[in-house]
Amino acid sequence: MTKTISRIGAAAVLAIGMLAGNAFANEEGNLQQSGARLDDRASLQRGAMLYMNYCSGCHSLKYLRYSRMAEDLGLSEDEVMQNLNLSGAKFGETIGTAMTPEQAQPAFGKMPPDLSLIARVRGNDWIYTYLKSFYLDESRPVGWNNTLFPNVSMPNPLWELQGLQHAEMGKADAAGEAHVERLKLTQPGAQDAAAFDQSVRDITAFLEYAGEPASLKRQGMGVWVVLFLAAFTLLAYMLKKEYWRDVH
Hints:
Shape: extended
Distance between the termini: 73 Å
Structural class: alpha+beta
Mean pLDDT: 85
Largest sheet: 2 strands, antiparallel
Radius of gyration: 25 Å
Order of helices and strands: HHEHHEHHHEEHEEHH
Number of helices: 10
Helix content: 40-55%
């Protein structure tokens, strides 16, 4: 009896694991490649500007300081304080949001999450796809929905740039529920498709940087480490030849 229960339990765990794996695979299969690059400083600077203008009103970056961002992205203190600091914080303070919990409660039901580590948790491709997957949905309290994150409780922060998308529904499944088949742009935004893709790519790159600012310096150090190893290998080879020159 015990063996039978153990087998049933193992089978249940395996089934759950397979279902979770399939769900993860389906989500991964729907992701678009972001093409975000940390070695593109201009992209990071644009991403910082876009993030501060369209995202920082609700979401903080509590593990990143304005001063560190300025140093890493090649920006002066004046540029940061005049163009990127919208919360009134000091230059050496972390990047917060002007929204208070009292303001967030009636609008979203809770305080929007901090996005310092979103790229490390979700990945670049997820962020890129998510920001492009909003569509108008009058059945939702916020008026928006998202194909990658169904029933999301936030509006599209980039709708002015992207324009307005509507969902075209496919055939209903056995349960009588129809799913989004494709998204159609019904009202153009301030940017065309290529320019909007680049804007989302810039934001994605900036959030990747925000998740681990040291990665910029680590990439620069990697070049010197490779050069050191190459020089050390050459010296070791020459030393070996010298030691074994008289050995027959």
